[in-house]
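Consider the record:
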Amino acid sequence: MMIKRSWLFLLSVILLPVIMEAQEKVLTLSDLIPGGKTYNRFVPRDLKQLSWCGDEYFYVRGDSVIGGEPGKKSRLLFALVDLNQALTAAGLKEAASLPSFSVPYEDRPVLAFVRNKHRLHFDFRKREIIANYPWDRGSNHDFCAATGRVAFTEANNLFILSPDGTVVPVTRETNEGIVSGQAVHQREFGISKGTFWSPDGSALAFYRMDESMVTPYPLVNIDARCATAELFSYPMAGMKSHEVTVGVYNVETATTIWLKTGLPKEKYLTNIAWSPNGKNLYVAELNREQNEMHLVRYSALTGEKEVELFSETDLRYVEPQHPVQFLPNDTTRFIWQSERDGFNHLYLYDTNGRLVRQLTAGEWVVTDVVGFDKDGKRVIFEATAPHPVSSSMQGDALRRYVWSVDLESDRLMDCLSWKDGVHHWRLSSSGAYAIDKWSSPTVPREIDLVWVKDAKVVETLLTAPDPYKNYRMPKIEVGKILAADGKTPLNYRLVLPPDLDPSKKYPTVVYVYGGPHAQLVTGDWLNGTRGWDIYMALRGYVIFTVDNRGSANRGHAFESIIHRNLGQNEMADQMKGVEFLKSLPYVDADRIGVHGWSFGGFMTTNLMLTYPDVFKVGVAGGPVIDWSNYEIMYGERYMDRPQDNPEGYKRANLKLKAGNLKGHLLLIHGDVDPVVVWQHSLGFLKACVDANTYPDYFVYPRHQHNVIGKDRPHLHEKITRYFDDYLK
């Protein structure tokens, strides 16, 4: 017995260091920050390239493509060796690994990929290359499944590539200030591209943007031996904007007609959509003031304005983000998304502009329309609506469930996802099945195949393990505080050191964004906690984030409270967060810092200058300093023009507050930033010199608005060192 006990004791002595080591593994910046050498090891496991091809799902695993029909055993669809045999048979070079695939057709077993300056279509059932496009010129490629043609841009002109390799010019502009076939209006209003094929591919609608009246803005290329200026069009708030028109090119006749959108020319032509019969175009037209929107139908044959279906106005702003979406079984009716009742909801209209019914309603927002079910009788969407088992009637913005609503009746909505968390669906081409990719604060990722008809999970394709298992992790807490108005609940997140001692005082960093179209506190994996937040908590910091009024997914009144007065209500809510922090026994009120990027850089700098006795250290990345130096579309939506709102612009001009700086403030900027141009931070530095204050400064050469790629860990090391030097 003594011998057994001795062996057990010896074994415990041997194993104890191993167990302790496993429990005490420490994450590094390389593990936690995108671009880090080991970052991919700590991303929740996923199914590579998971998508639908018809009603078959597929994904890449190693050198194989796996897939099949839901409810049936998955199988090998093809392997790298099969693809290489097809490439060899087509006289092309073999691939060393499986490429990135896209799905060009809804109902054919064909995958598309680009390699060696060719776009290739691979029929994985026949195991052969069935199309080969030269891909050695241009950008903004837009494939038309109906005809096999491809629209693309080269320089500022638009071209069409046919399956036989012939290229036809659509435009022949020689004026460098005129751009065709590219996204316009600074990619605001949901605009992501500049070409739109008709359903049958016989015509191509496209944007034409005249930028010749916009003052060119210089970016400096330091890679040349003698630095050169690279000019681009950047219309600043209150100045002359570009002018946009929409052309319709007839492929058969090689002629273009122009939509007669009329005056004034300075307006926004957004959310372009074709009618199912290809005879009409629907355009959401927004005035420059962005407080009045008109949905207009044009003839695609003549360019004539046929009818204005309806209009929307708002005292603050109207922001159309989604084109009309026609019903699959009824070409006379479409779905429109609008915030007209205060929250983004779905409305059913007919093509005469008559409102059939409002499909969704409540104090929550539709975040995405997924599509329609197999019968075309229900529209399926994601929303922040409270779960059916919840007692709340309001959405909290944290969770996303998938819902459906009947198009023909006033039936209540049906919930199609029951697991607590954030769900994102992707429908098969028929609408019979869906890929449900979801996560929760405690579930890194799960992927289910769902039968849409009854919301039944057919199969779970993946349950990802916790990538941080056996590593020291911070404690994450989520809760609510009241906004500065004393009535609006705000979501917050605390990231705490794993060995937090409530009797001790910890340095605290407020991580902030605070602007529209962004939400930082979520209900998905780790409540949206970033890698840097984790890293700092492991180093003994408390990291705090609150989504103030002005941020996303809480309704129009919540977001638009910032109108004409950027920074004021947002800062008031952030200071309620600071008040909450100071109530916590472990927060050192004398060691509070703040960090943010872009709008968050504006907020960081503003908080440092407005509350210099509260915030001791700040790091502002890509900060907006003077909103009169920001672009028209975004800037005028929230601030109006400087000449119409001089006091608002003055209050938000941080150069005028440069003399208030007391603590340590580091500004970081990319020198070729086309979003928040370099002029912002340089102008602030000049103001600080004039005011005898002393910020710190760091530039990332040849980086744009965000520092991405291999330099991103360097960025976060720089930020960390600054807080370590002055706050820890």
Summary: The first strand starts at residue 48 and ends at 53.
